[in-house]
Write a structure and sequence with these properties.
This protein is mostly helical. Helix content is 74%, strand content 0%. The chain contains six helices and no strands. The longest helix is centred in the C-terminal third of the chain and has 40 residues, at 65-104. The termini are far apart.
Length: 105
């Protein structure tokens, strides 16, 4: 399914590199439009983003320890809940099968 640019309003948004006014961005419902107009702030944000993309895994872990802790905790929690539900299901299946076997003998 393709999106028709004429109907979606994609071409109505201001282009990058052109002079953009805060009021023009607000008219297009762009959030935090004051930040997007500040060229120095945007340049600093792009530099910071590029620095983070160039980091290795160990360097990123050392510079963002709480983010790594949160990611590990959430991953562990999701796996723990998934396996606990799996074991509950398997135990119910086993109980049913064992009960059927016990009745047959």
């Amino acid at each position: 399914m393709s999106v028709d640019p004429e109907k979606s309003g994609i071409h109505d948004a201001p282009r990058q590199g052109s002079h953009v006014d805060v009021e023009e961005l607000k008219a297009h419902n762009v959030m935090h439009s004051e930040v997007l107009v500040d060229k120095d702030l945007m340049a600093t944000a792009y530099e910071g983003e590029n620095r983070e993309h160039e980091m290795g895994v160990w360097e990123a872990a050392k510079s963002h320890p709480m983010a790594c802790f949160w990611a590990f905790t959430m991953s562990f929690t999701i796996v723990w809940f998934a396996t606990s539900y799996l074991w509950k299901y398997l135990f119910a299946v086993f109980r049913t099968a064992a009960g059927m076997l016990r009745r047959q003998s």
